[in-house]
Design a protein that fits this description.
alpha/beta; 14 helices; globular; Rossmann fold
């Protein structure tokens, strides 16, 4: 096998096509992602509010049906008084290591502006439009904190929305709490945000639809068990030294789930980034007989690990990871285009969840629209749209949308189904449930394996729905082929 050099962050982004990918002309959205480097704050406003007394119709009103695909439509026959727009501050990693988490943002934001252009009836009976203030965290936690603070102090946003690993979610949460501004978080593990130094944080303003690391492990182990493939249950855990590692290795997450199922964990020293030499981690896993690799990793470093594992003759039966194996744009850059690797199914068209803002659409229709507009393969990052659905649902119920405490009260009574699954904040708090702490309801998570595609080079098939109720499993996990 020819020697392959380590991949730098910039090299990886070029390979994955996320450093300057362009949206198809059909969407008219311009550049999808800025080149790596300094992002700028862009304020975009929805259509202006009118004061005419015309009758108004809004779709996607609050539903208490928490099953996927529940229909929900409200018709407002009486004239509604117009009130000021609600300003949404959106922080996402549009450039940098985690750009794949934001790759669908331009698409769903543009789409949402059209849907919401005429406004909706909020919980006070008034008609309001929504302004979108979108900023790039550049996949850097310090930058995320800075721009979130600016959105609160300078732009006077009503609410913050953030997704894309703890590097974005955690600093946004901290700024929201300090600035007494509601925040909705997704696409990051809840433990990393809400458990710090072993203590659950007492947040007043911050709420999540964030996955549990234990959900990922439950999904992976369910897939391993049902595959029919025999392993020695020795798992090599691969992490970099960051908040994600702390969340995964919290006693309530990976150690608890693996131990209960009889697995032995081998946990090498977490690597520092930039990570270009994984000899020590690979050697320890080989020497201790690991037949499974697991953990959560940024795509560039995971790419380096997998290439070096092959070079050094380390060939586990299963290779699985969080973050690195969610999005096709990253997967195709790995050895053999990532075929056989197992990742988190953080969102999938087969879920067929109805769009609460446009009930004529469901998950599959959203995936189809994304491909039509952008010319790119659908991506689980489409699921990030769910936090916008959630925000609109909240404002439809908030009795005083201009009062942030009233908005928090509406968050606490959320009971609906959005693109990342059912959210029920009215359910009892139980660490072993989908409502593990007061401030978070867990997102649905499955396990998916990357296989040769029929339309695209590689496509994910769902191999476990252990943590995503009602989701169809379409295949069994198969061992890696080298």
């Amino acid at each position: 096998m020819a020697e392959e050099k380590a991949v730098s962050r910039r090299d990886f982004l070029k390979l994955a096509g996320v450093a300057g990918a362009a949206v198809g002309a059909a969407g008219g959205l311009g550049g999808l992602l800025a080149a790596c480097g300094g992002g700028t704050t862009t304020t975009t406003a929805a259509a202006s509010t009118t004061t005419t007394a015309a009758a108004t119709t809004t779709t996607g009103a609050v539903s208490t049906d928490t099953t996927a695909g529940a229909s929900s439509t409200t018709t407002v026959s009486a004239a509604a008084e117009s009130a000021r727009a609600i300003k949404l501050g959106i922080v996402s990693p549009k450039t940098g290591n985690f750009a794949t988490f934001a790759i669908a943002d331009d698409w769903w934001i543009a789409r949402s502006k059209k849907i919401l252009a005429d406004g909706v009836i909020t919980g006070d009976g008034k008609k309001r439009t929504f302004d979108f203030d979108v900023v790039d965290s550049q996949s850097d936690s310090n930058r995320a904190a800075q721009v979130a603070g600016d959105l609160i102090a300078n732009d006077n946003v009503d609410i913050l929305l953030a997704s894309g690993t703890p590097d974005t979610a955690n600093p946004v949460a901290d700024q929201a709490e300090a600035g007494a501004t509601p925040a909705l978080l997704s696409f990051a593990p809840w433990q990393a945000c809400f458990i710090r130094n072993g203590k659950t944080q007492d947040f007043k303003w911050v709420y999540g639809n964030m996955l549990g690391s234990e959900e990922t492990i439950a999904s992976f182990t369910d897939a391993f068990a049902k595959s029919g493939v025999s392993t020695n249950k020795v798992v090599g855990m691969l992490f970099q030294n960051d908040a994600d590692e702390q969340g995964w290795m919290d006693p309530s997450a990976a150690p608890k789930v693996f131990k209960a199922l009889g697995y032995t964990l081998v946990v090498p020293q977490p690597y520092a980034i930039p990570a270009e030499d994984f000899t020590s981690q690979i050697t320890e896993m080989k020497n201790k007989g690991c037949e499974i690799v697991c953990g959560t990793n940024d795509p560039p470093w995971f790419s380096n690990f997998t290439k070096q594992a092959l070079q050094q003759g380390f060939k586990p039966k299963f290779i699985s990871s969080g973050k690195a194996l969610i999005f096709p744009q990253a997967v195709v850059t790995y050895p053999n285009k990532g075929l056989g690797m197992i990742g988190e199914a953080a969102w999938h068209p087969s879920w067929k969840i109805q769009d609460t803002l446009d009930p004529t659409m469901d998950s599959q229709a959203l995936a189809d629209d994304y491909e039509k507009v952008t010319g790119q393969q659908w991506t689980a990052a489409i699921g990030c749209y769910g936090k916008l659905e959630w925000a609109i649902d909240i404002y439809k119920r908030a009795t005083n949308p201009e009062d942030k405490s009233s908005v928090v009260d509406a968050i606490k009574t959320t009971k609906n189904t959005f693109q990342q699954g059912a959210i029920d904040f009215t359910a009892p708090v139980d660490l072993n449930s989908m409502h593990p702490i007061a401030n978070n309801c867990k997102a649905w998570i499955g396990a998916q394996q990357w296989v040769k595609g029929t339309k695209w080079p590689v496509e994910p098939v769902v191999i476990s729905a252990a943590a995503s109720p009602g989701v169809a499993v379409t295949a069994k996990a198969t061992p890696m082929v080298y």
